[in-house]
Amino acid sequence: MTRCKSVWVVPRETFLLVDSQTLPYIRLTVPPPIAAFIVARIIAIANQKGGVGKTTTAVNLAASLAAAERRTLLVDGDPQGNATSGIGVPRDTIGETVYDVLLNPDRIKDVIIKSVQFRHLDVLPATPDLAGAEIELVDQDERELAMRRALDHVRDEYDYILIDCPPSLGLITVNMLAAADALLIPLQCEYYALEGLSQLLNTVHLVQQGVNPSLGIDGVLLTMYDARLNLSRQVAADAREYFGAKVFQSVVPRNIRLAEAPSFGKPIILYDVASVGAQAYMGVARELLDRK
Ligand SMILES: Nc1ncnc2c1ncn2[C@@H]1O[C@H](COP(=O)(O)OP(=O)(O)O)[C@@H](O)[C@H]1O
Ligand SMILES: [Mg+2]
Fold first, then answer.
1. pLDDT tens across 212-231, in order?
2. Centre of ligand 2 from the C-alpha of residue 54, in Å
3. Of 51, 83, 148, 207, which has the maximum CB count within 10 A?
4. What is the pTM of this model?
5. What distance separates the 2 farthest-apart alpha carbons in the chain?
């Protein structure tokens, strides 16, 4: 390691470790951020199946983008609040949440928690209250547009807004898809992974035909990949055949460090930056930056 000013430069040139007084953070060596007036790309991380790596992807991709000095907002769209706790927002510091924002979109700026773990990472937190929003929204006009209205207030303050969707295709997910420019679909490398996607793609189609014609698919991310298993390799090959270049080159392997990190309230790059899981998510972030 060599020291230059206050920055520790780590060999292998993958990233810089910066030790600020308050929050240590890691900066990816990627091109400098583009002009600040560009509005955020809003990406919904969705798959109606639970346990496929949505939250892990939302938290770690958001952290990697923030480490690359992209102004990033992580929206926790799941009543389980796993993204909120996983990124390190303590439960007892949460006041209003995404639930309040869905019912009062104009309040979003008061609800966002600034600079969580990284200077450039803000969080819109969720708690179990959010489950009630599905029911309360039903009676509202244009009920599927609440999230879009809310994000319109802050879109010019970020480069990326990542939304962790719940494992269902209900009104919350539809709100998130209506607000998004694109979807990122985590695909767990296991049996029936692709078959489960037809329901999601149907919902995407309905949203495209209705409230959000420009909704695209930014990428399919292979998660929990185990190169020793024929099955993993087969799912990866099928996904690449079906989705082509939309499948990220970076593949997230099964990695115990990724599963451990949330219980410490840390994204993987702060928990174990050398782990294969951290390297994978930094690779995904780099691909996303190259695509923009
Ligand atoms: N690549 C991975 N390797 C090992 N464990 C993982 C990996 N990705 C996710 N997990 C773990 O699997 C479980 C489900 O992941 P999660 O991201 O919560 O899925 P979802 O949000 O789709 O329900 C969590 O316990 C998480 O820590
Ligand atoms: Mg989740």
1. 999 999 999 999 999 899 99
2. 5
3. 83
4. 0.89
5. 60
